[in-house]
Amino acid sequence: MNGQVVFDPLLPWPVIWAAAVLAAIMTGFALWRGLSGGWLRMLAAAVMLAGIAQPSLQTENRRPLSDIVILVVDESASQKISDRAEQTAAAVARIEAEVAALPDTELRKIVVGDGAGDTGTLALTALSQALAEEPRARVAGAILVTDGQVHDLDVGADMPAPLNVLLTGHGSDWDRRLMVKTAPVFGIIGEPVNLTLRVEEQGSMPGQLAGRPVVLSVAIDGGAAQDFTVPVGEDLDLPLTLDHGGQNVVQIKLATDEGELTDRNNMAVVQINGVRDRLRVLLVSGEPYAGERTWRNLLKSDSAVDLVHFTILRPPEKQDGVPVSELSLIAFPTRELFIEKIEEFDLIIFDRYRLRGILPASYLDNIRDYVEKGGAVLVSAGPDFASVESLYHSGLGDILPARPTAIVIDEGYRPLVSDLGQRHPVTEGLETYTPEGGVAGSVGAPEWGRWMRLVELADPVGQVVMEGPRAKPLLVLNRVGEGRIALLASDHAWLWNRGFEGGGPQLELLRRLAHWMMKEPDLEEEALTAEAEGQSLTITRRTLTEGAREVTVTAPDGTETVLQLTEAAPGRYRAEFQAPEIGLYRMTDGELDRVMALGPAAPKEFEETIASEDKLAALVTPTNGGFLALENGAPDVRRVREGRPAIGRGWIGITPREAYQTLDIRIAPLLPAWAFLLIAAALTVGAWLREGRR
Hints:
Layout (H helix, E strand, L loop, with lengths): L1 E6 L5 H20 L5 H16 L1 E10 L2 E8 L9 H18 L3 E8 L10 H11 L5 E8 L16 E5 L6 E9 L3 E3 L3 E12 L10 E7 L5 E5 L4 E7 L4 E9 L12 E9 L3 E7 L4 H11 L4 E7 L22 H7 L6 E5 L9 H12 L3 E5 L22 E7 L6 E2 L21 E4 L2 E3 L6 E5 L4 E5 L5 E8 L2 E6 L5 H4 L8 H12 L9 E7 L2 E7 L6 E6 L5 E10 L2 E7 L4 E6 L4 E6 L18 H4 L6 E3 L6 E4 L7 E2 L2 E4 L5 E10 L3 H20 L2
Parallel strand pairs: 3-4, 3-5, 5-6, 6-34, 8-14, 15-16, 15-17, 17-18, 18-26, 35-37
Antiparallel strand pairs: 1-2, 2-38, 7-9, 9-12, 10-11, 10-13, 13-14, 19-23, 20-24, 21-22, 24-25, 25-26, 27-28, 28-31, 29-30, 29-32, 30-31, 32-33, 36-37
Helix pairs in contact: 1-2, 2-11
């Protein structure tokens, strides 16, 4: 129970105070005049004013409320370094026991992990939310168990009580970290790109290691690493040259010295997409025909293609009597193209070319060598390929994926994707591309326009991905040495472009062919890929073979997980993997290897790993709290008066709030109004009687 006097005045307080002043003046005047009843008049006025103010006695029935202590436990990635997890667990157990021993005191425990999207440790956000959920009058203090590396300092926690921080780690900790200051998102294949790196030292570096140059290794796509000795504390420019299109995973690793706090910040992974500046194509046309302009228009429609078109308009056997000096044709620089600059081309296309002696045999031998060294050749064959003037009878015949039988089939047929072609990325799903004016058909039976000619091929080597009438090879692909070659056994692909009988996906087919021959990773028939969405990895194995597949995933901490792949589509096997942490993951199925960077190149949790009170000092000091190092042991919890220091040697303090809940309120007047009036009248009459005796 608790009582106090309250007032419920009949008149506004300014009026009552004015009346009190007037009464005091009149009483003073009476005393000045020497009236013996002046003091009784003063008492009468006071009683009247008290009656107008209506004093009452208010009593409350109160229930005491317990004090609340908020404990925020940092369990982010940096808290798993060294023995910090054990320090944290011991400190939390001690705090829980100490608070439980205090009378009328409750503990609110909040655990904070890694923030979503690499936002780091959001300990102050958690503390602010906890304060908002509790009555401020009951909060006796807050305790934060952390290494001091929090990343939401802009969230100010308005503390009504002391805030104490228990720091994990050790004063002797030291660490190095690798920083990627700048890294390009895209890079042109074959041209150098620059990464800017920096190696920094933190903490109590040993004297023999401080400032010493360190070894840095760089590997691309999990290949052999190159080592460099670099200085610390300086920006370093690292030039790299990308050798393939698509995603290039660059892994940079800093050598770890004994005693270093962690090696998690000694590695960075940068993903750079390799793009081609220009696709340089040489189109060699053997003779003018309806499809020649179609090839040229298709290639010229792509602004990224640099096309050199070499066409034979006046073959040697053509004798029309026109003197050479009167011809307006310009001699083509064949030697420069086929000898000196052939390596500059990404793709060479032979369109209905026949052997007429225009290109010497040595030039064609040079083209064969160009393919074996990594080049690409596409042969679009017409009737000439079945004749004695066929390219098959040149040096290119050594690498062509099939031989002609000298039979030309002149009949209408619809090109079909073979069973193998259903699995090959060049023709996979090609049936779903509906030509303008055409109708999409089922797999294996597209509603494409017909072609009218096919050169019969025998002994195909490589992959037959498209077929003509009676399942005869139409498009054959093969790898030769480091290069690739494709043979299209018809010169009627242009009919699709002209929309004959609805046309067909000629542009898509040629685009895929060109990119497969350029070794684009997305069109590799044997590939192991991974896509990340959050912490989930989708692993895909693309292959031309059949059978059960499995892949081994190695996490950043070295643990291995074997996943069984299931066939999601012809030639595509998939599995889902929930990654436990961010970092570099390695995948292998025994034949192919793949590396995948999950999360940022440099996670916030490992940018600064040395335990420190610097970031939180501005928030802790005004609350009369402080910092204690857990390497000296977990502290006791004491009660201290408000305004007193809440930390000392081996102890931290909380401030009792003495909060309560009011259950009932009773208000009773001190005297009824008539009693005040009666007392005032009696005092006034007494004054008159006293003054009347004189």
